[in-house]
Protein backbone atom coordinates (compact mmCIF):
# COMPACT_ATOMS: atom_id res chain seq x y z
CA UNK A 1 0.00 0.00 0.00
CA UNK A 2 1.31 3.46 -0.88
CA UNK A 3 4.58 3.92 -2.74
CA UNK A 4 7.49 4.62 -0.41
CA UNK A 5 9.28 2.09 1.74
CA UNK A 6 8.63 2.81 5.37
CA UNK A 7 11.58 2.00 7.64
CA UNK A 8 10.38 2.70 11.15
CA UNK A 9 6.79 3.11 9.98
CA UNK A 10 3.72 0.97 10.46
CA UNK A 11 1.82 -1.08 7.93
CA UNK A 12 -1.65 -0.60 9.34
CA UNK A 13 -3.79 1.34 11.75
CA UNK A 14 -3.81 -1.37 14.42
CA UNK A 15 0.00 -1.42 14.53
CA UNK A 16 0.15 2.35 14.83
CA UNK A 17 -2.46 2.32 17.62
CA UNK A 18 -0.59 -0.41 19.50
CA UNK A 19 2.59 1.63 19.25
CA UNK A 20 1.15 5.01 20.23
CA UNK A 21 -2.04 4.27 22.14
CA UNK A 22 -3.84 7.15 20.42
CA UNK A 23 -3.46 8.38 16.84
CA UNK A 24 -4.37 11.77 15.38
CA UNK A 25 -6.54 12.02 12.27
CA UNK A 26 -6.81 15.16 10.14
CA UNK A 27 -9.70 17.64 10.27
CA UNK A 28 -12.35 19.17 8.04
CA UNK A 29 -11.30 19.06 4.40
CA UNK A 30 -13.91 21.27 2.76
CA UNK A 31 -13.50 23.77 5.59
CA UNK A 32 -9.85 24.25 4.74
CA UNK A 33 -10.46 24.33 0.99
CA UNK A 34 -12.97 27.13 1.55
CA UNK A 35 -10.48 29.04 3.70
CA UNK A 36 -8.26 29.11 0.62
CA UNK A 37 -11.07 30.51 -1.50
CA UNK A 38 -12.63 27.38 -3.00
CA UNK A 39 -16.33 27.78 -3.82
CA UNK A 40 -17.98 24.49 -2.86
CA UNK A 41 -21.72 25.21 -2.95
CA UNK A 42 -22.06 22.38 -5.44
CA UNK A 43 -23.45 18.82 -5.39
CA UNK A 44 -19.86 17.54 -5.64
CA UNK A 45 -18.80 19.65 -2.64
CA UNK A 46 -15.08 19.14 -1.89
CA UNK A 47 -14.78 16.65 -4.75
CA UNK A 48 -15.28 19.57 -7.14
CA UNK A 49 -11.63 20.48 -6.54
CA UNK A 50 -10.54 17.16 -8.04
CA UNK A 51 -11.72 18.73 -11.31
CA UNK A 52 -11.00 22.42 -10.80
CA UNK A 53 -8.02 22.66 -8.43
CA UNK A 54 -6.20 19.43 -7.50
CA UNK A 55 -3.20 21.46 -6.41
CA UNK A 56 -5.29 22.97 -3.60
CA UNK A 57 -6.22 19.48 -2.42
CA UNK A 58 -2.50 18.64 -2.19
CA UNK A 59 -1.89 21.88 -0.27
CA UNK A 60 -4.58 21.07 2.30
CA UNK A 61 -3.22 17.55 2.80
CA UNK A 62 0.20 19.08 3.43
CA UNK A 63 -1.21 21.56 5.94
CA UNK A 64 -2.78 18.75 7.93
CA UNK A 65 0.45 16.75 7.86
CA UNK A 66 2.36 19.75 9.16
CA UNK A 67 -0.20 20.19 11.94
CA UNK A 68 0.47 16.64 13.21
CA UNK A 69 -2.10 14.43 11.45
CA UNK A 70 -1.07 10.78 11.30
CA UNK A 71 -4.06 9.71 9.21
CA UNK A 72 -5.02 11.62 6.06
CA UNK A 73 -8.50 11.16 4.62
CA UNK A 74 -8.85 11.65 0.87
CA UNK A 75 -11.03 14.21 -0.91
CA UNK A 76 -13.42 11.52 -2.21
CA UNK A 77 -16.21 11.75 0.38
CA UNK A 78 -18.69 13.19 -2.12
CA UNK A 79 -16.89 11.88 -5.22
CA UNK A 80 -19.05 9.33 -7.00
CA UNK A 81 -19.16 7.97 -10.52
CA UNK A 82 -22.82 8.94 -10.72
CA UNK A 83 -22.09 12.49 -9.55
CA UNK A 84 -19.27 13.03 -12.02
CA UNK A 85 -21.24 11.53 -14.91
CA UNK A 86 -24.16 13.85 -14.16
CA UNK A 87 -21.73 16.67 -15.09
CA UNK A 88 -21.07 15.11 -18.48
CA UNK A 89 -17.80 13.50 -17.44
CA UNK A 90 -17.19 10.10 -19.02
CA UNK A 91 -17.09 6.91 -16.97
CA UNK A 92 -13.38 6.51 -17.69
CA UNK A 93 -12.62 10.07 -16.58
CA UNK A 94 -14.83 9.65 -13.50
CA UNK A 95 -12.92 6.57 -12.42
CA UNK A 96 -9.66 8.46 -12.96
CA UNK A 97 -10.87 11.25 -10.68
CA UNK A 98 -11.54 8.75 -7.91
CA UNK A 99 -8.03 7.37 -8.31
CA UNK A 100 -6.62 10.90 -8.33
CA UNK A 101 -8.08 11.52 -4.85
CA UNK A 102 -5.93 8.72 -3.44
CA UNK A 103 -2.88 9.65 -5.51
CA UNK A 104 -2.93 13.24 -4.26
CA UNK A 105 -3.04 12.14 -0.63
CA UNK A 106 -0.35 9.46 -1.07
CA UNK A 107 1.96 11.84 -2.91
CA UNK A 108 1.61 14.48 -0.20
CA UNK A 109 2.19 11.88 2.51
CA UNK A 110 5.23 10.38 0.75
CA UNK A 111 6.80 13.80 0.17
CA UNK A 112 6.22 14.73 3.79
CA UNK A 113 7.65 11.41 4.97
CA UNK A 114 10.79 11.83 2.84
CA UNK A 115 11.23 15.32 4.28
CA UNK A 116 10.95 14.03 7.84
CA UNK A 117 13.40 11.20 7.20
CA UNK A 118 15.88 13.60 5.62
CA UNK A 119 15.61 15.76 8.74
CA UNK A 120 16.46 12.73 10.87
CA UNK A 121 13.06 12.50 12.53
CA UNK A 122 13.53 8.85 13.47
CA UNK A 123 10.65 8.82 15.93
CA UNK A 124 8.16 10.24 13.47
CA UNK A 125 5.52 7.79 12.30
CA UNK A 126 4.73 7.50 8.60
CA UNK A 127 1.17 8.80 8.15
CA UNK A 128 -1.52 6.55 6.75
CA UNK A 129 -3.91 7.41 3.90
CA UNK A 130 -7.59 6.54 4.27
CA UNK A 131 -9.77 6.63 1.14
CA UNK A 132 -13.03 8.35 2.04
CA UNK A 133 -16.33 6.79 1.00
CA UNK A 134 -19.40 8.79 1.90
CA UNK A 135 -22.98 7.63 2.19
CA UNK A 136 -25.59 7.55 -0.56
CA UNK A 137 -27.05 10.67 1.02
CA UNK A 138 -23.81 12.54 0.37
CA UNK A 139 -24.27 11.90 -3.35
CA UNK A 140 -27.86 13.17 -3.18
CA UNK A 141 -26.52 16.40 -1.61
CA UNK A 142 -29.91 17.02 0.00
CA UNK A 143 -28.99 16.55 3.65
CA UNK A 144 -30.32 12.98 3.79
CA UNK A 145 -27.04 11.65 5.17
CA UNK A 146 -28.20 13.37 8.36
CA UNK A 147 -31.42 11.36 8.48
CA UNK A 148 -30.88 8.17 6.49
CA UNK A 149 -34.24 8.81 4.83
CA UNK A 150 -33.68 7.77 1.24
CA UNK A 151 -37.35 7.18 0.53
CA UNK A 152 -39.56 4.08 0.77
CA UNK A 153 -38.04 2.47 -2.30
CA UNK A 154 -34.51 2.17 -0.96
CA UNK A 155 -33.23 -1.39 -0.55
CA UNK A 156 -30.04 -3.15 0.45
CA UNK A 157 -29.48 -4.16 -3.17
CA UNK A 158 -29.82 -0.59 -4.45
CA UNK A 159 -27.27 0.63 -1.92
CA UNK A 160 -24.85 -2.13 -2.86
CA UNK A 161 -25.28 -1.39 -6.57
CA UNK A 162 -24.58 2.29 -5.92
CA UNK A 163 -21.44 1.79 -3.83
CA UNK A 164 -19.86 -1.28 -5.45
CA UNK A 165 -17.76 0.20 -8.26
CA UNK A 166 -16.50 3.13 -6.20
CA UNK A 167 -15.43 0.71 -3.47
CA UNK A 168 -13.60 -1.42 -6.04
CA UNK A 169 -11.75 1.56 -7.50
CA UNK A 170 -10.75 3.27 -4.26
CA UNK A 171 -9.55 0.05 -2.66
CA UNK A 172 -7.40 -0.81 -5.69
CA UNK A 173 -5.26 2.30 -5.98
CA UNK A 174 -3.06 2.19 -2.91
CA UNK A 175 -4.73 3.53 0.25
CA UNK A 176 -3.75 2.12 3.62
CA UNK A 177 -7.36 2.23 4.83
CA UNK A 178 -10.92 2.81 3.73
CA UNK A 179 -12.82 5.46 5.68
CA UNK A 180 -16.51 4.63 5.20
CA UNK A 181 -18.01 7.61 6.95
CA UNK A 182 -21.09 9.54 8.01
CA UNK A 183 -23.16 6.38 7.62
CA UNK A 184 -26.73 7.08 8.75
CA UNK A 185 -28.24 3.61 9.18
CA UNK A 186 -27.68 -0.06 9.84
CA UNK A 187 -29.01 -0.78 6.35
CA UNK A 188 -26.26 1.18 4.64
CA UNK A 189 -23.61 -0.23 6.97
CA UNK A 190 -24.87 -3.72 6.10
CA UNK A 191 -24.48 -2.89 2.41
CA UNK A 192 -20.80 -2.08 2.98
CA UNK A 193 -20.22 -5.15 5.13
CA UNK A 194 -21.58 -7.37 2.36
CA UNK A 195 -19.63 -5.55 -0.35
CA UNK A 196 -16.35 -5.86 1.56
CA UNK A 197 -16.88 -9.62 1.61
CA UNK A 198 -18.31 -10.08 -1.87
CA UNK A 199 -15.49 -8.10 -3.49
CA UNK A 200 -12.88 -9.64 -1.17
CA UNK A 201 -11.52 -6.19 -0.36
CA UNK A 202 -8.10 -6.58 1.23
CA UNK A 203 -7.76 -2.96 2.42
CA UNK A 204 -8.79 -2.63 6.09
CA UNK A 205 -11.82 -0.43 6.64
CA UNK A 206 -13.38 1.67 9.31
CA UNK A 207 -17.08 2.47 9.34
CA UNK A 208 -18.23 5.58 11.18
CA UNK A 209 -21.80 6.44 12.06
CA UNK A 210 -23.25 9.85 12.84
CA UNK A 211 -25.65 10.66 15.66
CA UNK A 212 -27.95 13.57 16.36
CA UNK A 213 -29.07 12.61 19.86
CA UNK A 214 -26.05 10.90 21.43
CA UNK A 215 -27.89 7.56 21.68
CA UNK A 216 -28.82 6.44 18.17
CA UNK A 217 -27.46 6.78 14.67
CA UNK A 218 -29.25 9.49 12.71
CA UNK A 219 -31.80 7.09 11.17
CA UNK A 220 -32.96 6.14 14.68
CA UNK A 221 -31.20 2.77 14.70
CA UNK A 222 -29.71 1.89 18.07
CA UNK A 223 -26.04 2.89 18.17
CA UNK A 224 -24.81 -0.03 20.30
CA UNK A 225 -26.59 -2.54 18.08
CA UNK A 226 -25.09 -0.89 15.01
CA UNK A 227 -21.58 -1.17 16.44
CA UNK A 228 -22.21 -4.79 17.43
CA UNK A 229 -23.08 -5.53 13.80
CA UNK A 230 -19.75 -4.06 12.66
CA UNK A 231 -17.91 -6.05 15.32
CA UNK A 232 -18.80 -9.27 13.50
CA UNK A 233 -17.08 -8.22 10.25
CA UNK A 234 -13.38 -9.12 10.09
CA UNK A 235 -12.76 -6.67 7.25
CA UNK A 236 -13.86 -3.79 9.47
CA UNK A 237 -10.86 -3.10 11.71
CA UNK A 238 -12.21 0.02 13.37
CA UNK A 239 -15.59 1.52 14.22
CA UNK A 240 -16.33 5.16 14.57
CA UNK A 241 -18.35 8.26 15.22
CA UNK A 242 -18.13 11.31 12.98
CA UNK A 243 -19.97 14.43 11.84
CA UNK A 244 -21.85 14.92 15.10
CA UNK A 245 -21.67 17.44 17.95
CA UNK A 246 -18.60 16.91 20.16
CA UNK A 247 -20.61 16.72 23.38
CA UNK A 248 -22.20 13.45 22.20
CA UNK A 249 -18.91 11.65 21.64
CA UNK A 250 -17.83 10.54 25.11
CA UNK A 251 -21.08 8.70 25.81
CA UNK A 252 -21.01 7.08 22.38
CA UNK A 253 -17.45 5.87 22.96
CA UNK A 254 -18.59 4.15 26.15
CA UNK A 255 -21.45 2.50 24.26
CA UNK A 256 -19.15 1.43 21.45
CA UNK A 257 -16.63 -0.07 23.86
CA UNK A 258 -19.34 -2.26 25.38
CA UNK A 259 -20.04 -3.72 21.93
CA UNK A 260 -16.55 -4.12 20.47
CA UNK A 261 -12.85 -4.44 21.20
CA UNK A 262 -11.97 -2.97 17.80
CA UNK A 263 -10.16 0.34 17.36
CA UNK A 264 -12.51 3.30 17.96
CA UNK A 265 -12.23 6.33 15.67
CA UNK A 266 -13.89 9.63 16.61
CA UNK A 267 -13.99 12.84 14.60
CA UNK A 268 -16.93 15.12 15.40
CA UNK A 269 -17.75 18.52 13.98
CA UNK A 270 -16.60 21.72 15.65
CA UNK A 271 -19.83 22.16 17.59
CA UNK A 272 -21.44 24.63 15.20
CA UNK A 273 -24.87 23.73 13.85
CA UNK A 274 -25.46 22.87 10.19
CA UNK A 275 -28.73 23.54 8.40
CA UNK A 276 -29.01 20.94 5.60
CA UNK A 277 -31.76 22.96 3.90
CA UNK A 278 -29.83 26.20 3.57
CA UNK A 279 -26.47 24.38 3.54
CA UNK A 280 -25.12 26.96 5.95
CA UNK A 281 -23.46 26.75 9.36
CA UNK A 282 -24.99 28.74 12.19
CA UNK A 283 -22.48 31.01 13.88
CA UNK A 284 -22.17 30.26 17.59
CA UNK A 285 -21.51 32.83 20.29
CA UNK A 286 -19.35 30.44 22.26
CA UNK A 287 -15.76 29.50 21.32
CA UNK A 288 -16.32 26.15 19.59
CA UNK A 289 -12.59 25.48 19.21
CA UNK A 290 -12.08 25.85 22.96
CA UNK A 291 -15.14 23.71 23.71
CA UNK A 292 -13.90 20.98 21.33
CA UNK A 293 -10.49 20.81 23.00
CA UNK A 294 -12.06 20.51 26.43
CA UNK A 295 -13.47 17.13 25.38
CA UNK A 296 -10.39 15.54 23.79
CA UNK A 297 -8.72 14.10 26.90
CA UNK A 298 -12.03 12.61 28.00
CA UNK A 299 -12.42 10.88 24.62
CA UNK A 300 -8.99 9.32 25.01
CA UNK A 301 -9.75 8.19 28.57
CA UNK A 302 -13.08 6.75 27.45
CA UNK A 303 -11.31 4.52 24.93
CA UNK A 304 -10.94 6.40 21.65
CA UNK A 305 -7.88 5.23 19.71
CA UNK A 306 -8.02 7.67 16.79
CA UNK A 307 -9.11 11.29 17.31
CA UNK A 308 -9.60 13.96 14.67
CA UNK A 309 -12.09 16.48 13.41
CA UNK A 310 -14.86 16.63 10.82
CA UNK A 311 -16.74 19.68 9.52
CA UNK A 312 -15.52 23.14 10.56
CA UNK A 313 -12.36 21.83 12.20
CA UNK A 314 -8.97 22.97 10.93
CA UNK A 315 -5.21 22.34 11.19
CA UNK A 316 -5.33 24.38 14.40
CA UNK A 317 -7.81 21.83 15.76
CA UNK A 318 -5.39 19.04 14.91
CA UNK A 319 -2.53 20.86 16.61
CA UNK A 320 -4.74 21.23 19.68
CA UNK A 321 -5.58 17.50 19.65
CA UNK A 322 -1.87 16.67 19.49
CA UNK A 323 -1.19 18.92 22.47
CA UNK A 324 -4.05 17.40 24.47
CA UNK A 325 -3.21 13.74 24.01
CA UNK A 326 0.60 13.62 23.84
Automatic annotation (TrEMBL):
Keyword Hydrolase: no
Biological processes annotated in GO: methylation
One Gene Ontology molecular-function label: methyltransferase activity
Keyword Metal-binding in annotation: yes
Residue ranges of every copy of the Hcy-binding domain listed in the record: 11-325
Cofactor: Zn(2+)
PANTHER family in the cross-refs: HOMOCYSTEINE S-METHYLTRANSFERASE-LIKE ISOFORM 1, ZGC:172121
Alphabetical list of NCBIfam families matching this protein: PRK09485.1
Official protein name in the record: Hcy-binding domain-containing protein
Amino acid sequence: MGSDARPGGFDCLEELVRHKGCVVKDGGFATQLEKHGALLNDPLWSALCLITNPGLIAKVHWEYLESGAEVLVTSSYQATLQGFQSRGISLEESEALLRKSVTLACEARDRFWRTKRAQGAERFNRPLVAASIGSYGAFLADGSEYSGDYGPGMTLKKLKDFHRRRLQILSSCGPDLLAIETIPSKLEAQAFIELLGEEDIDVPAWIAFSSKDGKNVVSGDNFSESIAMLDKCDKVVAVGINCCPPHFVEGLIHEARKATSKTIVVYPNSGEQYDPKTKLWKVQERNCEKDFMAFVKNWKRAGANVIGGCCRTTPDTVRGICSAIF
